[in-house]
Every structure is written in C-alpha cells, then in structure tokens.
Amino acid sequence: MRPRDAWLVGGALGVAGLLALHSAVPNGVGRLGSLLETFLPWLGAAVPVLGFLALLGRSRTGLLACLAPVAVWLWIFGGMWFSSPPAASGLTVVQHNVADDNADPAGTARALLATRAGLIAVEELTPSARPAYQDVLGGSHPHRAVHGTVGLWSAYPLSDVRPVDIRPAGFPESWRRGLRATVSAPDGELAVYVVHLPSVRLGATGLASAARDESAALLASRISDDPAGRLLVVGDLNGTLQDRGLGPLTSRLDAPSTGFAFSWPAGLPVARIDQVLGRGVEVAELSALEETGSDHLPVVGRVLLR
C-alpha cells in the first residue's frame, strides 16, 4: 500500500472509530469525551475532505475506506437526517432560551406566538422582560407558571404547579431554574418540566461541565420519582443528547425521532442544546426556527400522546 493510501485509510478508519466508539474516549481529563460528543455529528464533515484527497491522489483504496465512516454516521444519525413528514396531529411545544440580555422581548414573544404552539417554554426570563411576554402571550395562553428564570405559557389549564430543585452544591438559593406543572391537554394530562441546567464553559483545561452534570443527575432523580405516565422535559440542557454528562437524565427519556434542530449558537448553530424529551409520549419531530434576538434558536416539537 502506498504511503498516501495508508494515510487516507488511517484517517477514514480513525473517523469511523471515533464515531462508533465515542463513549470509550476518556472523560477524566478535561471531559474530552463530552466535548467530542457535543459536536459528534460534525465528524462526518471529515469524509468529504478525505474523499477529495483520495480523488486528488487517485486512491481507490482511500475512496473505499471512506465508506466506513459514512456507514457508521448513517447508523447513528441517519434516522434524524432522513426525516418523515410532519405529524398531522398532536401537541405542539416550543422551547426557547430567550436570553437575559434580549433587547426585544416583545418581538421574541411574537415569534414564539406565531408557531401556534399550545405550550411555550422559556428560560432566562428576567423580571423586567416578564411583562412583555405576558402582554403578547397572555391572551392566547392564559395559563402561566413561572419560577425564577424559567416560565411556561399554556393554552390549556395548568395544575399542580411547583418548583423543581436542581441546584448544584454551592449555588445560591436565588438560583431557581426548574418547575413542574400538569397540563390538561386535549388528548389527556401530562406532566411538563421546564428546566435550565448550568452553563458549560470551554477553557484551557477542557470542558467545565461538573455543575451541569450534577444538575442533570438531580433532575433525573426527580423524573424517576415522578408517577406521571406521560411526561415532558423541555428546556436548555446545555448539552447534546450524545453527551454522556446528561446520561442519567437522557437514559430515562425518549428523544425526537427526526430532525437535528441545531439551536446554538444562533448565528451559526452547530449543536442542539435545547431539548424536548418525553416519557410515555412520542416527540415525533423537532425543528429549529429563525433567530429572535437571543443567542439560541427556538426549537418546536410535535408531541404525540400515547
């Protein structure tokens, strides 16, 4: 095998290996495993580059080797890429981190209202911006639950509204980012959690996600103890579904069957950290909307009650 062929084959098999065995990448130093999993779908971008180099070098072996990462990528993400037609019925839910420095909360609220979603969940809701959201959403969504910086506007009656404590150790009592409410939807009742997990930072020492992981574990415990047969978790989880740091939570919930719906950062979205997850319900599709003035994009999901 020519050295050039060996280099291309090694690169292709390396990409395939990282895709297939991402959970084997250690997380002990800098949480490299979680960092890789945050951007895991983008490993597929290496395939066109390797394919171009193989064509340039007239390497049939290199081209054939590119089939390995393509096959693994399709195995992991193919179902999300080849989406099915939108469900004709169900409960529409829109989720948005509206940003605490949003200069146009009324405009953002109008954008969320335009989705005609029955449930509108928001995070980073500041006291000063709350009246703007209420003015726009209150007429069509008269049922509201707010706790700290998270809120839920509903077209359907809410009951059993209560805060959910997902505060990591050492965080102040003023840190309030979780609530639960029972929604009386047309097809039946379901519990809805609106949450905002702690932020994750990328620095010289790697990914700082310990607080986020701790909060996710606390939420997972609340979910596990919740007797509701139908349940939704909606919010900014500050992590993707592949990120093992969210594993205690995501392992208990079903993910959307279609749609990448990259939601962050808004200017050039590369990851979906805003989620709509379910238990006893099916999140049939999830899609991202246009920018609203936040650093996140809204995501809208269609939920089918089983």
UniProtKB/TrEMBL annotation:
InterPro entries associated with the record: Endo/exonu/phosph_ase_sf (IPR036691), Endo/exonuclease/phosphatase (IPR005135)
Domain of life: Bacteria
Entry's transmembrane regions: 39-56, 63-82
Ranges for domain Endonuclease/exonuclease/phosphatase: 95-296
UniProt entry keywords in alphabetical sequence: Endonuclease, Hydrolase, Membrane, Nuclease, Transmembrane, Transmembrane helix
Ribonucleoprotein as UniProt keyword: no
A Pfam family this chain is assigned to: Exo_endo_phos
A GO MF label: endonuclease activity
Protein name per its UniProtKB record: Endonuclease/exonuclease/phosphatase family protein
